[in-house]
Amino acid sequence: MKILNQVFGERLFVANRLEAANAGISATLAVNPEYGFGSLLARIDRRKRFLEEVQRASVSNEFVTETPKAWLSKWTVSIGNRMQENLLAPEVVSRLSNDGSKLASDLLISKSLFFNESKWLIGSDAWAYDLGNSGVHHVIASGANVNMLIIDSQPWSEQAAADSVRRKKDIGLYAMNFGNAYVASTAVYGSYTQVLEAMIEADNFE
């Protein structure tokens, strides 16, 4: 999580992160691929509705000044250009923060959606076994533009014994068979730079 925060900052959205809004959701359920994917789809749908709200606001007369409208209009024109969206987002948020109107306050409740987010699901090596792997299949087969970070923390010396009891699947190889996935395998303590590059390349892969 720390590395992702350092790389993507305000743009980062981890679909299966447990926060206050997840009250009542067990940690076991939250790390399930299906739960995270459902949360991700809900986020994508929410942003679509947010874009519509912004477009309506850009021609509204409910702001105190005309400044927010000008910046909202500029931002809506940039939709679809991720770099431009993210470049303008802080400026739009700043103008809305200075306006003081109810409409500006309402938009600021979802200010993170002004950024074209880097969407991630984070899982453990448990996803490489049967139950978790079925969820991974569902995510990959959907064709959705989502990043998956799977952390395998099991020592190599223990893998042979574990795999003799239940076979661990190679998720990277499995994903490559679909032909529409960027796959990288890195070791955090082997090359930190390689880890960063893999994360950035995964985010840029459409």
Describe this structure in words.
The chain is mostly helical and 206 residues long. The protein contains 10 helices and 3 strands. A 3-stranded parallel sheet has the order 1-2-3. β2 (118-124), α7 and β3 (147-151) form a beta-alpha-beta unit. α3 crosses α4 (67-77) and α4 packs antiparallel against α5 (82-97). The longest helix has 25 residues, at 33-57. The protein is elongated, with a radius of gyration of 20 Å.
Question: Topology of this protein?
Answer:
Blueprint: H1 2-8, E1 12-14, H2 27-30, H3 33-57, H4 67-77, H5 82-97, H6 102-108, E2 118-124, H7 130-142, E3 147-151, H8 156-165, H9 171-176, H10 192-204
Parallel strand pairs: 1-2, 2-3
Helix pairs in contact: 3-4, 4-5
Give a short summary of the structure.
The chain is built from 10 helices and 3 strands, in the order H-E-H-H-H-H-H-E-H-E-H-H-H. The chain is mainly α and 206 residues long.
